[in-house]
Amino acid sequence: MQPACPKCRDVTLEHPEGRASRLLRCPTCRGTWMPKDEARLEAVGSLLDADSTIRPGTTEDGRTGLCPLGHGILIRAKVDADPGFYLERCAICHGIWFDKGEWNALAQSHLMEHLDELWDPAFRHRNRQSEAEVQASLQRELGPKVFEALEALATHLAERSPRQKSAALAYLHQRVNRD
Ligand SMILES: [Zn+2]
Ligand SMILES: [Zn+2]
């Protein structure tokens, strides 16, 4: 059986050109399949070469994927990045699918060494704790008054549209850098 792209369905995955790697890539959507026992960290360099897309968030990201090895629907796990996106893993063979750009978004982060933990609820909890640590150190750095104002602003902005958010951040940037 030819491995089919989880997202394009009728497109056959190919091995990236000139590499001994067991990675598979889709020539159409440029997503990547990484088998479980692939040497993941060593594969980082070759994939960075192959995919020059910087930002995740393609239309494929919202689509349900099927394991290219025929194991059925892939299980999604959210990556808390900016912008956030989903990785998908097969519950049977534990291969992982990266939509175009998602690989590059992850390559620089510590998450690459702990990919499987994204599907582990305990890991998600630890990640949230570290956000609390970031807040604590920011509060020490800025003092409680500024930190409180910053948190209030962040809460308000979180409810706004992407356009309003970027307008607000652009203004803030300009305003604080004024001489
Ligand atoms: Zn595809
Ligand atoms: Zn599978």
Plain-language structure description:
- This protein starts with 23 loop residues before the first strand and ends with a helix.
- The protein folds into two domains: 93 residues, no CATH class; 53 residues.
- It has 179 residues and is α+β, with helices and mostly antiparallel strands.
- The longest helix is centred in the C-terminal third of the chain and has 22 residues.
- It is built from five helices and five strands.
- One zinc ion (ZN) binds next to loops.
Provide keyphrases for this structure.
2 domains; 179 residues; 10% strand; 39% helix; alpha+beta; five-stranded antiparallel sheet; binds zinc ion; 5 helices; 5 strands
| Order of SSEs | EEHEEEHHHH
- Classification by helices and strands: alpha+beta
Strand content: 5-15%
Query: Cα distance, first to last residue?
Result: 65 Å
Give the overall average pLDDT: 79
Number of helices: 5
Low-confidence segments: none
Listed once per kind, the bound small molecules are: zinc ion
For the biggest β-sheet, the strand order reads: 1-2-5-4-3
The tally of structural domains comes to 2
How many beta strands in the DSSP annotation?
Answer: 5
- The shape is elongated
Task: State the helicity in percent bands.
Answer: 25-40%
